[in-house]
């Protein structure tokens, strides 16, 4: 058989034959075949995804318009298919936009905006339309009204998958009387889809969890087997309005930077940085430009002038390089040049040029003697030859400083000489980038190891590079212009590396709308009846030029079910993520935390912790990196993973102390009940044997357990409450005696009467080992009941 490879090159026209069947694929056609990528892989899931896309859009649209969202979702079961209706009270959609939004994939208002929003790609709702027409063959019905009680625009349409353009079946205006909209303005979508309700619990979770993180929204779901009505939390206002921002310099990708360089009106890099990025002012731009120059041109080595004990007379060298000038002025010129060099301590080639030129300028204006370009060049050459005469000696000092004392002198000298020899090559100005310098040191160290039988470890090499790099100076050359950088990938990548290197203030968070720890905790309290709640909101960070904030919350105990692994709720931009839990960075980070450190069970030391708990994580960003277009799972971006971990750990820290305390209280209680089992019998025996009266068991228990003991004594109408603190730390106790007759003379306490009962209340602070006595007067026949707060039950003994 002739293989394809064998015929290649022999027969003409295979490529042409293939070419005949190659054609452009429309985006709609692509997603029609790959609907799983958009979250429409099955009927059950398709319904949840369609609801999610429509509700997310409704929330975005209402919030953008400053309207408190009122969202109605209805699912009707028909014989062969389901009908989904989603209606909002948003600003509506203009007549011209309706066909594009619903009848064209990749059409939206948010793709280019650096601002937190649920929708980002301009695919969501049109993908639902595509799924609907694919499974039911019916057009989607849209009705939208932009003016209060004005006419509504009604469309029935499908997507032409060949062209990715809307195909309109029906287009008409509806008067308020004909309209199906419940509110005075907003949008109503109705679509038929082949579906089933197997994912009912995911659907309910989506609606409930959406309500937790959007307490300002009213969401109603009506479906064949039930309903959810999530009311607006009392007093909950709209989230703070977000603003669009420019990208942050940290994390921008190379392709993006090159595109930005191509699009900008700026000519200089400094102008580009200040104009196109957030948080870059003149100073930050200067710092970035310096780093950029260090990478692009390299730095110049600064050498030490010969010292006083050297044979070289620099003044004589300068004088020797100047010819045909008046002797007094030449001497003055040489003195000034040498003074400036010595003041500088170390001098690089460009610095030397600047000194020589500056002094020449001064001399000309003061004395009229001109030290022209040729003279200056001669002086620079002559002095530079002296400065670089003993590079090895100079490098020796740096190498010696940067390596341990253990290295013998000969090794250090050998290494220094080899490094020094790398300078002064083709580039007479002794320039090197940090990478080149690293290479110099590496090669010199390798040779020293080979020929001098010495060891120069990684750290020593790095220290030497650091030391020498710090001695070098940024060159005075102007950086390349924007168009030069845009046209050269390597230079653009040097710019990116410089941008990463410089500290830039965190991006403004006005483009983000986190829930905030307080509201997050309130959301958890509203939804879950637990014993413990905590929440944390981190500061903003950046990934790929986009700012983000991570928040986490934990609820534990109470009515929460212990079903093995804890319940992990994931959110991105206030949208619950329902599917692909295992593929989500959030899940993986939570699994990797050592939960035993936080007093939660974690079999095997990894995986989701066990126990009656809910952990929630919210990632808010101008661009949440999802693993796919269906937006179910956050991708593994290291910056985001780090913040997820820190947020969860922050929330878990309080849980740790709560659980620790709870565990020790439980142990105490167990101990106490064991003691209480045997103590009365022992007391009886002791009193029998010693012939003394019965021992007060409660009192003894308090002493054994280091408890706070509150006892009441009554003598002739005077009631005394003794608060004995048998523990070691102070106890702030609220003691109330509830009496059924009017009390008198309470010591430092206050009395409140309610329905014929008197509440006598004290709040003493009792140090460890001390006793407080609280007294009041009461008629003989009055009865009373003690209530104590401020001390855990397991630490308290009441004897009345
Ligand atoms: N209910 C609505 N009210 C007002 N405008 C809407 C509504 N639904 C959608 N839009 C507009 O239509 C655009 C496209 O919506 P679509 O769901 O296709 O994409 P998206 O929400 O921008 O992004 P994603 O693909 O991430 O969901 C939105 O950006 C928004 O401008």
Automatic annotation (TrEMBL):
<keyword id="KW-0067">ATP-binding</keyword>
<keyword id="KW-0799">Topoisomerase</keyword>
<dbReference type="InterPro" id="IPR005734">
    <property type="entry name" value="TopoVI_B"/>
</dbReference>
<dbReference type="Pfam" id="PF09239">
    <property type="entry name" value="Topo-VIb_trans"/>
</dbReference>
<dbReference type="InterPro" id="IPR020568">
    <property type="entry name" value="Ribosomal_Su5_D2-typ_SF"/>
</dbReference>
<protein>
    <recommendedName>
        <fullName>Type 2 DNA topoisomerase 6 subunit B</fullName>
        <ecNumber>5.6.2.2</ecNumber>
    </recommendedName>
</protein>
<feature type="binding site">
    <location>
        <begin position="109"/>
        <end position="110"/>
    </location>
    <ligand>
        <name>ATP</name>
    </ligand>
</feature>
<dbReference type="GO" id="GO:0005524">
    <property type="term" value="F:ATP binding"/>
</dbReference>
<dbReference type="InterPro" id="IPR015320">
    <property type="entry name" value="TopoVI_B_transducer"/>
</dbReference>
<keyword id="KW-0238">DNA-binding</keyword>
<dbReference type="GO" id="GO:0003918">
    <property type="term" value="F:DNA topoisomerase type II (double strand cut, ATP-hydrolyzing) activity"/>
</dbReference>
<dbReference type="InterPro" id="IPR036890">
    <property type="entry name" value="HATPase_C_sf"/>
</dbReference>
<dbReference type="InterPro" id="IPR003594">
    <property type="entry name" value="HATPase_dom"/>
</dbReference>
<feature type="binding site">
    <location>
        <position position="631"/>
    </location>
    <ligand>
        <name>ATP</name>
    </ligand>
</feature>
<dbReference type="GO" id="GO:0003677">
    <property type="term" value="F:DNA binding"/>
</dbReference>
<dbReference type="GO" id="GO:0006260">
    <property type="term" value="P:DNA replication"/>
</dbReference>
<feature type="binding site">
    <location>
        <position position="57"/>
    </location>
    <ligand>
        <name>ATP</name>
    </ligand>
</feature>
<keyword id="KW-0547">Nucleotide-binding</keyword>
<comment type="subunit">
    <text>Homodimer. Heterotetramer of two Top6A and two Top6B chains.</text>
</comment>
<dbReference type="InterPro" id="IPR040494">
    <property type="entry name" value="Top6b_C"/>
</dbReference>
<feature type="binding site">
    <location>
        <begin position="119"/>
        <end position="126"/>
    </location>
    <ligand>
        <name>ATP</name>
    </ligand>
</feature>
<keyword id="KW-0413">Isomerase</keyword>
<feature type="binding site">
    <location>
        <position position="88"/>
    </location>
    <ligand>
        <name>ATP</name>
    </ligand>
</feature>
<dbReference type="InterPro" id="IPR014721">
    <property type="entry name" value="Ribsml_uS5_D2-typ_fold_subgr"/>
</dbReference>
<comment type="similarity">
    <text>Belongs to the TOP6B family.</text>
</comment>
<dbReference type="GO" id="GO:0006265">
    <property type="term" value="P:DNA topological change"/>
</dbReference>
<comment type="function">
    <text>Relaxes both positive and negative superturns and exhibits a strong decatenase activity.</text>
</comment>
<dbReference type="Pfam" id="PF18000">
    <property type="entry name" value="Top6b_C"/>
</dbReference>
<feature type="domain" description="Histidine kinase/HSP90-like ATPase">
    <location>
        <begin position="42"/>
        <end position="197"/>
    </location>
</feature>
<dbReference type="Pfam" id="PF02518">
    <property type="entry name" value="HATPase_c"/>
</dbReference>
């Amino acid at each position: 058989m002739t293989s394809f490879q064998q015929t290649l090159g022999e027969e003409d026209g295979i490529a042409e034959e293939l070419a005949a069947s190659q054609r452009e694929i429309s985006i709609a056609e692509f997603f029609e075949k790959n609907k799983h990528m958009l979250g429409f892989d099955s009927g059950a899931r398709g319904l949840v995804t369609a609801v999610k896309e429509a509700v997310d859009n409704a929330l975005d649209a209402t919030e953008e318009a400053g309207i408190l969202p009122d969202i109605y979702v209805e699912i009707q079961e028909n014989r062969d298919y389901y009908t989904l209706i989603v209606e909002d009270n948003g600003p509506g959609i203009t007549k011209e936009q309706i066909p594009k939004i619903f009848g064209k994939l990749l059409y939206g208002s948010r793709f280019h905006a650096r601002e937190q929003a649920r929708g980002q790609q301009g695919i969501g709702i049109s993908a639902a339309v595509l799924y609907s027409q694919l499974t039911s063959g019916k057009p989607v019905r849209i009705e939208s009204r932009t003016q209060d009680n004005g006419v509504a625009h009604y469309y029935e349409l499908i997507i032409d998958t060949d062209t990715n353009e809307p195909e309109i079946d029906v287009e008409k205006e509806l008067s308020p009387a004909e309209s199906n909209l419940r509110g005075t303005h907003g949008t109503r979508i109705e679509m038929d889809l082949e579906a089933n309700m197997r994912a009912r619990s995911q659907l309910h979770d989506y609606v409930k969890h959406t309500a937790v993180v959007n307490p300002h929204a009213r969401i109603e779901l009506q479906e064949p087997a039930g309903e959810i009505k999530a009311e607006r939390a009392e007093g909950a206002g709209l989230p703070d309005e977000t603003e669009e921002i420019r990208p942050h310099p940290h994390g921008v990708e190379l392709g993006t930077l090159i595109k930005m360089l191509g699009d900008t009106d700026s000519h200089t890099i400094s102008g580009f940085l200040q104009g196109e990025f957030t948080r870059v002012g003149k100073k930050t731009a200067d710092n970035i430009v310096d780093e950029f120059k260090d990478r692009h041109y390299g730095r110049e080595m600064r050498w030490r002038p010969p010292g006083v004990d050297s044979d070289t007379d620099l003044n004589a060298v300068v004088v020797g390089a100047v010819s045909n000038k008046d002797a007094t002025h030449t001497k003055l010129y040489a003195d000034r040049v040498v003074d400036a060099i010595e003041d500088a301590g170390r001098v690089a080639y460009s610095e030397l040029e600047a000194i020589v030129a500056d002094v020449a300028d001064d001399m000309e204006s003061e004395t009229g003697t001109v030290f022209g370009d040729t003279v200056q060049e001669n002086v620079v050459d002559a002095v530079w030859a002296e400065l670089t005469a003993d590079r090895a000696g100079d490098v020796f000092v740096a190498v010696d400083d940067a390596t341990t004392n253990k290295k013998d002198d000969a090794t250090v000298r050998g290494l220094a000489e080899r490094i020094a020899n790398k300078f002064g090559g083709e580039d007479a100005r002794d320039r090197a980038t940090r990478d080149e310098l690293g290479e110099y040191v590496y090669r010199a160290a390798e040779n020293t190891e080979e020929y001098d039988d010495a060891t120069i470890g990684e750290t020593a090499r790095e220290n030497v590079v650091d030391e020498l790099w710090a001695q070098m100076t940024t060159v005075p050359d102007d950086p390349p212009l924007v168009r030069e950088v845009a046209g050269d990938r390597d230079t653009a990548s040097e710019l990116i590396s410089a941008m990463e290197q410089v500290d830039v203030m965190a991006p403004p968070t006005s483009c983000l709308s986190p829930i905030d720890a307080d509201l997050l905790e309130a959301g958890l309290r509203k939804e879950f009846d637990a014993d413990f709640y905590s929440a944390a909101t981190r500061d903003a960070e950046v990934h790929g030029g986009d700012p983000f904030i991570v928040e986490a919350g934990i609820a534990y105990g109470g009515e929460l079910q212990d079903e093995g692994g804890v319940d992990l709720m994931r959110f991105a931009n206030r949208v619950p993520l329902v599917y692909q839990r295992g593929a989500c960075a959030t899940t993986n980070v939570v699994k990797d935390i050592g939960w035993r450190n936080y007093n939660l069970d974690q079999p095997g030391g990894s995986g989701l912790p066990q126990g009656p708990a809910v952990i929630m994580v919210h990632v808010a960003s101008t661009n949440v990196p999802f693993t796919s277009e269906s937006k179910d799972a956050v991708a593994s971006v290291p910056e985001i993973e780090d913040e997820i971990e820190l947020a969860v750990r922050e929330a878990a820290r309080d849980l740790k102390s709560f659980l620790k305390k709870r565990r020790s209280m439980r142990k105490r209680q167990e101990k106490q009940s064991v003691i209480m089992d045997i103590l009365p019998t022992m007391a009886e025996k002791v009193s029998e044997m010693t012939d003394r009266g019965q021992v007060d068991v409660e009192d003894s228990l308090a002493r054994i357990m280091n408890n706070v003991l509150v006892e009441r004594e009554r003598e002739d109408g005077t009631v005394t409450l003794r608060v004995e603190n048998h523990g070691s730390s102070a106890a702030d106790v609220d003691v109330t005696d509830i009496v059924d007759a009017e009390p008198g003379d309470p010591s430092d306490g206050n009395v409140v009467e309610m329905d014929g009962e008197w509440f006598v209340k004290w709040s003493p602070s009792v140090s460890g080992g001390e006793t407080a006595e609280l007294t009041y007067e009461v008629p003989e026949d009055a009865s009373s009941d003690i209530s104590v707060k401020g001390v855990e039950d397991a630490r308290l003994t009441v004897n009345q």
